[in-house]
Structure formats: structure tokens, C-alpha cells
Amino acid sequence: MMLERLDYWWSVLRAEWPFKLRPRLWPLIITLLFLACLLTALAVVATTHMTRTQYAHLQRLEQEKSQLQTEWGQLLLEEGAWSTPARIEQIATDRLDMRIPDVNDVEVIRP
């Protein structure tokens, strides 16, 4: 059965249908197909390498973004702590020797 199919195929090829096959073109066709496969394989390897490199770079950037977000949050908390009235009063008392006047020290001036 298989030999009959091969014989039929060969007879069709000898009849030059659907195109004329020249024996001297076969090495060229095979070489071109091999080169096309080789170039495709190289393109796949290069693309895979570039993808992995870009993904590693993306991970580094995301990690840096996360660290910057954390630092930004800490700075916002510090800013809130620095501007609280209790902190300002404590600094005024410790460094400048300021104090809230007693009731006896207050003098009201009327126009």
C-alpha cells in the first residue's frame, strides 16, 4: 500500500504536475529551508533573551518604586509629626525657654 502511494507520487512528479521539479534545484531548496529554520531559531533565542532582560529590568524598577513609595509615606508621617502643635510647644519650651503665661501674668488692655 505504501509502495503504491510512493510509486504514484513519483509518477506524478515525473509528469511535471503541478510544477516541474528539477533535480539540481533540490539542494538549493533544502539549503534555503535549513537557513530559514536556523534564522527562525536564532530569532526565537534572541527574543527570549530580550524578554527576560526586560522583565528583570521591570522587576528592578517595580522594587525601586515600592521603596520610593515607602519612603514617601514615611516622609508624610514625619511632616505630620513636625507640624503638630504639641511638638511646636515642646520645642519652644525646650530651646527658646518660652512658656504659656499664667493667669496672673496676663494683663488685659482696654481701649
From TrEMBL:
It comes from the Bacteria. It is found in: Cell inner membrane; Cell membrane. Keywords: Cell cycle, Cell division, Cell inner membrane, Cell membrane, Membrane, Transmembrane, Transmembrane helix. Signal peptide: none annotated. Its main location: membrane. The keyword Cytoplasm does not apply. It is a single-pass type II membrane protein. GO terms for biological process: cell division. InterPro entries: Cell_div_FtsL. NCBIfam families: ftsL_broad. Part of a complex composed of FtsB, FtsL and FtsQ. Belongs to the FtsL family. Essential cell division protein. May link together the upstream cell division proteins, which are predominantly cytoplasmic, with the downstream cell division proteins, which are predominantly periplasmic. This is Cell division protein FtsL. It comes from Vreelandella malpeensis. The gene is ftsL.
